[in-house]
């Protein structure tokens, strides 16, 4: 009863009109709940109410919410592999594949990765190359026969 109350009042509450950061927090908490207690949540009592929430999270317009939803779908799939021998509901599989083939998701992820790569390159330049460039030349004489 307590689990049902927490699910209905907090994790599966109506998300319309709520700030996306709150939705993101709820989707993350929901994903963690599925991960930790999938044997209690993926039962006939709760699954019919859990499924639409996970699916709506996975198809959300914000990438962090969609990632949490896809992660939740993965935890549900893991539950089906461990407890039911991999007999997945067809809707789960089709939506999971559709989410992974979403071009917008891939574009946003590559933008994030490109930005991260650029930031790392700038950090490397700032710390290492600038420092090396400002150092005085070495007074060591290198034998020219070694260089050939």
UniProtKB/TrEMBL annotation:
Matching Pfam families: HEAT_GCN1_C_2
Protein name: Putative gcn1 general control of amino-acid synthesis 1
Organism for this UniProt entry: Pipa carvalhoi (Carvalho's Surinam toad)
């Amino acid at each position: 009863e307590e689990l049902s109350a927490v699910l209905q009042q907090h994790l599966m509450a109506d998300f319309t009109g709520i700030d996306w950061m709150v939705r993101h927090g709820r989707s993350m908490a929901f994903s963690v709940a599925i991960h930790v207690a999938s044997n209690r949540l993926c039962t006939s009592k709760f699954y019919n109410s859990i499924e639409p929430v996970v699916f709506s999270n996975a198809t959300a317009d914000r990438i962090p919410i969609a990632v949490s939803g896809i992660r939740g779908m993965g935890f549900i799939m893991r539950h089906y592999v461990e407890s039911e021998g991999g007999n997945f509901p067809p809707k789960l599989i089709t939506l999971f594949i559709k989410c992974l083939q979403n071009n917008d998701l891939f574009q946003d992820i590559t933008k994030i990765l490109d930005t991260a790569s650029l930031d790392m390159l700038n950090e490397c330049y700032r710390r290492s190359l600038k420092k090396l460039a400002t150092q005085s030349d070495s007074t060591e004489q290198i034998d020219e026969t070694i260089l050939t």
